[in-house]
Write a structure and sequence with these properties.
The chain has 459 residues and is of the alpha/beta class. It folds into 3 domains: 118 residues, Probable tRNA modification gtpase trme, domain 1 (Gyrase A, domain 2, 2-Layer Sandwich); 126 residues, tRNA modification GTPase MnmE domain 2 (Four Helix Bundle (Hemerythrin (Met), subunit A), Up-down Bundle); 164 residues, P-loop containing nucleotide triphosphate hydrolases (Rossmann fold). Helices cover 44% and strands 18% of the residues. The strands form 2 sheets. A 7-stranded mixed beta sheet has the order 3-4-5-6-2-1-7. It has a 6-stranded mixed beta sheet with strand order 9-10-8-11-12-13, with helices on both faces. The chain is flat.
């Protein structure tokens, strides 16, 4: 592979330190053209994984900066190839000049995620570990970062390997019996195969059960705040955000568009959407706002239905609640304005058998916010942390694991029905292919390319 180079840190704004990364066969010779070590030794002779001070030069031999360089001989490097990094002052101009010098010496610009893609292609990591790299970069919570770090260390791969090994044992046994009929190979034991398929199915079921928590950990929970105008929706958003994110007045209908903010509530990242008050209106602008509110409700994973708790519940408020119930989304009824007193409430009757959480709070004083946090935490439990790295965190992983589970189920059904071994074998191999797609063993090129296109340049 040719030598690639990119700015790995800094470049978009001035900073204390910037990093330029280089990888590929022959990269040490290119680095020699732009770096003069203070100890006088050639770049290729520098001690591996040790920072060396020196001068960085452009293609005319002019000084760009003084800083540090380090080389990582392959295969024991991030990409599995010879790699190097330059650590210099974080001026975007300096970084661009250093990158231009490397290009002049024979390197080319790296594409998005190309360093990590080379690590995958060179067997330094599987596809789940590669995906964990971008998850770690994008992590917005400590829990998400811990899960991504554990997955980068092979947490998900270690869950999948026993399932793959069991399926490989099944397929290899079938092939041995079919391909070598004259050999003294014991016949396939249907009970053993059935037990192995049942164990694989159970492990995949447990893995698929982590999808919801994995998505919450990685993406947060899209949460719509809905209610009548002046019910206290924007005040709730501001209270959870900790600052005046939305305009709050005594005039009903202040919010005409959706207002979004990410907050932590009960240890869960909520992506709040404060919506326009839902009511009939002749005002065209307000009608548009109400329509956006309904769309936000449709796309939400959690609904906070805000009702003015200081007055008796109106028929209009009941209509809003009916709309929320009809959406069949998890929801919490919030009786707001607790500081103004409370009125009797019976609007939670007839919830269609679904459990309904009700919280009384005051956005002004903060009373009851902790109860809301506990309620959200109960809806989206964090788990014990022992399964960090073993969660399915995106749709691609879930879809592949789901296909593997379905194929294992079909194989078990074929075995129970007494079908010929080749029927069982076909489904077992399909399960292996799906798991291979998850880890990258059998992933198509377009899937791999799509994954690495999400990366930033330099990673």
């Amino acid at each position: 592979m040719d030598v690639i180079a990119a700015i790995a840190a800094g470049g978009s704004a001035p900073g204390a330190i910037g990093i330029v990364r280089v990888s590929g066969e022959g990269c040490f010779a290119i680095c020699e053209a732009v770096f003069r070590a203070g100890n006088g030794s050639a770049f290729a002779d520098q001690e591996p994984r040790k920072m060396i001070y020196g001068r960085m030069l452009d293609d005319q031999g002019r000084l760009i900066d003084r800083g540090l360089a380090v080389r990582f001989p392959g295969p024991h490097s991030y990409t599995g190839e010879d790699c190097a990094e330059f650590h210099c002052h974080g001026s975007p101009v300096v970084l661009r000049e250093l990158l231009a010098a490397l290009f002049a010496a024979g390197a080319r610009q790296a594409g998005p995620g190309e360093f990590t893609q080379r690590a995958f292609l060179n067997g330094r990591m599987d596809l789940t570990e590669a995906e964990a790299v971008i998850d770690l970069i994008d992590a917005e919570t400590a829990a998400a970062a811990r899960n991504a770090a554990a997955q980068l260390s092979g947490g998900l791969r270690r869950v999948l390997e026993p399932i793959q090994d069991a399926l490989l044992e099944i397929t290899s046994r079938f092939y041995a019996v079919v391909d070598y009929p004259d050999e003294d190979i014991p016949d396939v034991d249907a009970l053993q195969i059935r037990a192995a398929l049942g164990d694989a199915a159970g492990q995949l079921d447990r893995l698929l059960a982590t999808c919801r928590r994995g998505r919450v950990l990685k993406n947060g929970v899209r949460t719509a705040i809905v209610g009548l105008p002046n019910a206290g929706k924007s005040s709730l958003l501001n209270a959870l955000a900790g600052y005046d994110r939305a305009i709050v007045t005594d005039v009903p209908g202040t919010t005409r568009d959706t207002v979004e903010e990410s907050v932590f509530c009960g240890g869960v990242l909520l992506r709040l959407i404060d919506t326009a008050g839902i009511r009939e209106s002749a005002n065209v602008v307000e009608q548009l706002g109400v329509e956006r509110s309904r769309r936000a409700l449709d796309s939400a994973e959690l609904v906070l239905a805000v009702i003015d708790g200081s007055v008796p519940v109106t028929a209009e408020a009941r209509e809003v609640l009916a709309l929320v119930r009809k959406s069949e989304k998890p929801f919490i009824v919030i009786f707001s304005k607790l500081d103004l007193g409370t009125a009797p409430h019976t609007c939670l009757d007839g919830a269609g058998g679904r459990p309904v959480a009700a919280v009384h709070l005051s956005a002004r004083t903060g009373e009851g916010i902790s109860v809301l946090e506990d309620t959200v935490a109960a809806l989206f439990p964090a788990g014990d942390g022992g399964d960090a790295g073993a969660l399915l965190t995106d749709a691609r992983q879930e879809e592949a694991a789901g296909r593997a589970r379905a194929a294992v189920g079909r194989a078990a059904e074929a075995l129970d029905a007494g079908l010929t071994p080749d029927a069982v074998l076909t489904d077992a191999e399909e399960a292996l292919d799906a798991l291979g797609e998850l880890t990258g063993r059998t992933a198509r090129d377009e899937i791999v390319s799509r994954i690495f296109s999400r990366f930033c340049v330099g990673k």
